[in-house]
């Protein structure tokens, strides 16, 4: 675990590293590997941090960003790789070791103690002492007040942290990181819960730190922020190191193609997926959602789906895809918006009501939100309809058996028998069991959030064929997928979200890989988009200041995105 | 090292601050930005923090009017002395609960401490005190190590500890048939029976221990770490606080204090009574929670626990004063009050979440 990989002191610069003369790297990671169970989260990742730089760390779900950060800060022990800090080989066994060495981290979810005061949180573990060795509360509060004042944060340092808004809490976390005078500050999506003014404050602090020679790592799904703040960028994908280089040399489309492992020119012909093609569908939308707003997540999202139609919902991580379907399903409190199914308005925030109206949601995280591993296939399928299968409170077994048999055959669920425990099935069959469960409720609208993620290729194709079949039976399907092929080939129409807004709506001949890529990058606001169907205006992106030419994307690794992104789940787990 | 961290990081979504702190999510609740407290919540919070104190004062006032024998020096002193045995144990339990744990073994450990003290008193004062402390401290230490290093649930580990300590006690007393007596005239008897300025030594000891406890909780980094662990264990871990060490110390001290409580009761009753302490863990937990400590950990006060322990003892005493009431009513009343306190706590926790 503490084995040190000693490597001759060769040239330290990693791929694409700029190395200004005189600035020795502060952190060098080479070939870092880490797996959880059988899943490789990191497969040889390099990262070099220079003093006085802000380094963007970019990648989609499961790329390995969070794992890399946690390996770097002693939360996880790496399986292999070389780690140098200030030139010396290191392995941090615990977060405390990394912190003592001067690496502090601000996590995406605020990792402070809500019930303690702001000042206590800032100085936890390093409280100022009195002569007798006790905590000098007076001095602690004074220093904390000074510190947050200097950062331009207006909070009462003696108040409970949990009383503050999330943004303010995030700023307190920043104050804590600043107060330890770290040499490396890692910020894992610090801006996701901040208001614009707070983001400015945070950027100001980050730039001050850079000036004082601190190396900063900045993770954000708001791509604009990367160009505003960062000097260099490292892109990860599926646990691999993909690209490192100056931020200014990248445009948005190239960055996104690095992240997705696709570039517009390279994408091949049809036929990667099992999707048969376009679906015949009705004219009147069965699902009609408009003006959906969720605080700091979604604004004015609209979505219409007709019976028999598959509408793809595309977008990068953090663009609000899952939030959109959750909001429709009533599983997320919305600020405003209207959802109607077959002409009837749904009550906002009521899952029961949505279910009754015929909406079903296959959630992204089947382990946490769906499958009950120790129950049988039969019981898992029947779970959602138990109330309907009962007469006077007594479950009629024969009716359930008949129903389960039907779906086992129809969805080709491979299980020894209906009594087999679901945990013993493959990922693909587990997914089909879940789909069967929802089909039992006889939905008219089926929201599928990453239905093919984390299942093997064969099962993936079966699920894809099943989606086609469901649409063929007149079901209105919303398909969220991170894989461009699925959207392009499986959907009749793709609504692309960017930063919580509808960025573009592509259908017909517009529905191509290159157009999708441009839209995913948030750059579709060019004149060519004027002739869009439906009423959705492609939102212009707010000030990335990058040319939208989309030209010359440097070659990705050429690995098909159809590669199973199993690592995604692991990484999310790790995030806690 | 990374194993348990990972699991914990993934395991507790409901403690996720992003959800817990609520301000981020819109809805019927508070405005974005900082969370403002409604009047109802403020009253509930006051009731949770100071409710036991108010109840204690009201109960004492009423009792002194209704029962002439209540407010006498002898009665009050007896309340204080009798409360002290349980309160000593509750002090340790406060830290355990504040740190997000629970210790069900204290009743058995307490009884074991009493028997060991009575047995060892034949060798003099020092062994009578040190033997129970050593054995009970050791039990606490082992439990702490299993919980902190092994990552096992405190509930189960200390339930095993409860059985273990009770079994050990029965073994050394020949299935409870041997009752060790403290030799007459032993200095050890002074520990709980002696007085200074009209107040029993055990009460003085209690005051000193609680003062130290309050100092430790609010003015040392150990105390803050306990609160941090109870409030958000993942965060404590990620901030590099000594989580394992702190937990082990907490259970160790809790074992020591349970042993000390046992020694005090042995001194008070001049013997090692084997049937003591059955169900005491629940009474101790009640005292802690009544005193305003969150059962889920992370917030509470030492003084509150003292008030909670006194309140339970006063309820007992008052019900004894009412001749017609069976002493079992004490449990009914305490139970009702406890339920009220816990309801308020969970109401508050939910309001925080929004």
Q: Care to describe what's here?
A:
- The complex is a heterodimer of chains A (576) and B (354).
- Chain A has 576 residues and is α/β, with parallel strands linked by helices.
- Among the domains of chain A are: 273-358 and 443-539, P-loop containing nucleotide triphosphate hydrolases (Rossmann fold, 3-Layer(aba) Sandwich); 372-441, no CATH class.
- Helix content of chain A is 31%, strand content 21%.
- Chain A contains 19 helices and 22 strands.
- In chain A, the strands form five sheets. In chain A, strands 6-7-8-3-9-10 form a six-stranded mixed β-sheet, with helices on both faces. In chain A, strands 16-19-20-13-21-22 form a six-stranded mixed β-sheet, with helices on both faces.
- In chain A, a hairpin with a 3-residue loop joins β11 (287-294) and β12 (298-305).
- Chain A is globular.
- Residues 1-21, 266-270 and 526-576 of chain A have low confidence and may be disordered.
- By secondary structure, chain B is mainly α.
- Chain B has a domain at 77-281 and 293-300.
- Chain B is 71% helix and 1% strand.
- Chain B contains 15 helices and two strands.
- Chain B has helices at residues 2-11, 17-20, 39-66, 73-98, 106-120, 125-150, 154-172, 190-193, 201-219, 221-231, 233-238, 243-269, 280-290, 302-321, 329-353; strands spanning 195-196, 199-200.
- A two-stranded antiparallel sheet of chain B has the order 1-2.
- In chain B, β1 and β2 (199-200) form a beta hairpin.
- Chain B is globular.
- The two termini of chain B are 35 Å apart.
- Chains A and B meet through α2, α5 and α19 of A and α1, α2, α9, α10 and α11 of B.
């Amino acid at each position: 675990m503490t084995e040190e990989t000693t490597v001759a002191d060769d040239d330290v610069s990693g791929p694409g590293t700029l190395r200004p003369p005189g600035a020795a790297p502060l952190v060098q990671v080479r070939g870092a590997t880490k797996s959880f169970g059988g899943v490789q989260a990191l497969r040889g990742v390099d990262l070099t941090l220079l003093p006085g730089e802000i380094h963007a760390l970019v990648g989609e779900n499961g790329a390995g960003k969070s794992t890399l950060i946690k390996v770097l800060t002693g939360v996880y022990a790496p399986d292999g790789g070389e780690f140098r800090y200030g030139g010396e080989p290191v392995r941090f066994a615990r977060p405390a070791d990394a912190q003592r060495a001067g690496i502090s981290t601000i996590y995406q979810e605020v990792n402070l103690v809500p019930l303690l005061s702001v000042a206590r949180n800032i100085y936890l573990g390093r409280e100022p002492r009195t002569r007798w060795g006790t905590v000098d509360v007076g001095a602690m509060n004074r220093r904390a007040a000074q510190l947050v004042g200097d950062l331009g944060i207006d909070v009462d340092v003696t108040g409970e942290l949990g009383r503050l808004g999330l943004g303010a809490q995030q700023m307190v976390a920043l104050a804590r990181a600043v107060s330890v005078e770290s040499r490396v500050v890692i910020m894992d999506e610090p801006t996701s819960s901040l208001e614009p003014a707070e983001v400015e404050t945070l950027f100001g602090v980050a730039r001050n730190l850079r000036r004082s020679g601190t190396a900063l790592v900045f993770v954000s799904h708001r791509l604009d922020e990367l160009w505003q703040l960062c000097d260099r960028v490292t892109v990860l994908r599926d646990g691999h190191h993909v690209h490192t280089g100056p931020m200014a040399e990248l445009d948005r489309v190239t960055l996104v193609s690095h992240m997705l492992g696709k570039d517009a020119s390279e994408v091949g012909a049809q036929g990667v997926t099992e999707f048969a093609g376009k679906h015949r569908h009705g004219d009147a939308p069965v699902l009609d959602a408009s003006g959906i707003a969720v605080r700091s997540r979604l604004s004015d999202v609209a979505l219409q789906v007709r019976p028999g139609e598959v509408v793809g919902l595309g977008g990068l991580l953090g663009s609000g895809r899952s939030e959109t379907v959750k909001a429709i399903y009533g599983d997320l409190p919305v600020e405003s918006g209207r959802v109607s199914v077959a002409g009837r308005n749904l009550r906002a925030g009521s899952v029961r009501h949505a279910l009754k109206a015929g909406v079903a949601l296959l959630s992204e995280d089947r382990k946490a939100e769906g499958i009950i591993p120790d129950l049988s296939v039969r019981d898992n399928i029947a779970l959602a309809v138990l109330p309907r299968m009962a007469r006077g409170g007594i479950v009629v077994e024969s009716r359930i058996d008949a129903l389960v048999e039907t779906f086992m055959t129809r969805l080709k669920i491979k299980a020894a028998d209906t009594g087999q425990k679901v945990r013993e099935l493959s990922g693909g069959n587990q997914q089909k069991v879940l789909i069967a469960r929802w089909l039992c409720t006889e939905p008219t609208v089926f929201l599928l959030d990453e239905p093919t993620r984390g299942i093997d290729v064969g099962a993936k194709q079966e699920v894809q064929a099943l989606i086609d079949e469901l649409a063929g039976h007149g079901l209105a399907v919303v398909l969220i997928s991170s894989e461009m092929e699925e959207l392009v080939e499986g959907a009749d129409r793709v609504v692309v979200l960017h930063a919580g807004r509808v960025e573009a709506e592509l259908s017909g001949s517009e529905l191509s890989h290159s157009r999708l890529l441009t839209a995913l990058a948030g750059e579709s606001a060019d004149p060519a988009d004027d002739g869009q169907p439906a009423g959705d205006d492609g939102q212009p992106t707010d000030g990335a200041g990058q040319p939208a030419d989309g030209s010359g994307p440097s070659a990705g690794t050429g690995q098909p995105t159809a590669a199973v992104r199993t690592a995604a789940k692991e990484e999310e787990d790790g995030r806690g | 090292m990374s194993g348990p961290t990972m699991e914990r990081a993934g395991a507790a979504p409901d403690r996720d601050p992003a959800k817990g702190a609520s301000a981020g999510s819109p809805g019927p609740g508070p405005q974005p930005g900082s969370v403002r407290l409604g009047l109802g919540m403020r009253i509930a919070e006051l009731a949770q923090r100071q409710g036991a104190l108010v109840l204690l004062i009201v109960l004492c006032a009423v009792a002194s009017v209704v029962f002439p024998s209540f407010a006498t020096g002898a009665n009050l002193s007896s309340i204080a002395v009798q409360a002290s045995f349980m309160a000593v144990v509750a002090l340790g339990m406060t830290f355990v609960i504040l740190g997000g744990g629970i210790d069900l073994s204290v009743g058995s450990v307490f009884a074991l401490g009493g028997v060991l003290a009575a047995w060892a008193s034949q060798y003099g004062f020092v062994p009578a005190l040190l033997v129970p402390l050593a054995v009970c401290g050791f039990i606490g230490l082992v439990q702490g190590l299993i919980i902190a290093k092994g990552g096992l649930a405190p509930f189960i580990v200390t339930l095993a500890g409860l059985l273990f300590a009770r079994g050990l006690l029965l073994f050394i007393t020949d299935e409870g048939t041997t009752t060790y007596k403290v030799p007459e005239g032993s200095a050890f008897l002074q520990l709980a029976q002696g007085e200074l300025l009209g107040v029993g030594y055990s009460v003085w000891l209690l005051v000193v221990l609680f003062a130290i406890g309050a100092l430790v909780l609010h003015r040392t980094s150990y105390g803050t770490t306990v609160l941090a662990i109870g409030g958000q264990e993942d965060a404590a871990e990620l901030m590099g606080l000594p989580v394992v060490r702190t937990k082990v110390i907490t259970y160790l001290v809790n074992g020591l204090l349970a042993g000390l409580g046992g020694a005090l009761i042995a001194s008070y009753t001049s013997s090692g009574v084997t049937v003591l302490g059955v169900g005491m863990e629940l009474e101790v937990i009640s005292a802690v929670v009544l005193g305003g400590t969150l059962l889920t950990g992370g917030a509470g006060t030492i003084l509150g626990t003292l008030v909670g322990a006194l309140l339970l003892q006063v309820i007992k005493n008052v019900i004894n004063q009412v001749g017609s009431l069976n002493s079992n009513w004490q449990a009914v009343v305490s139970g009702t009050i406890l339920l009220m306190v816990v309801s308020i706590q969970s109401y508050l926790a939910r309001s925080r979440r929004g």
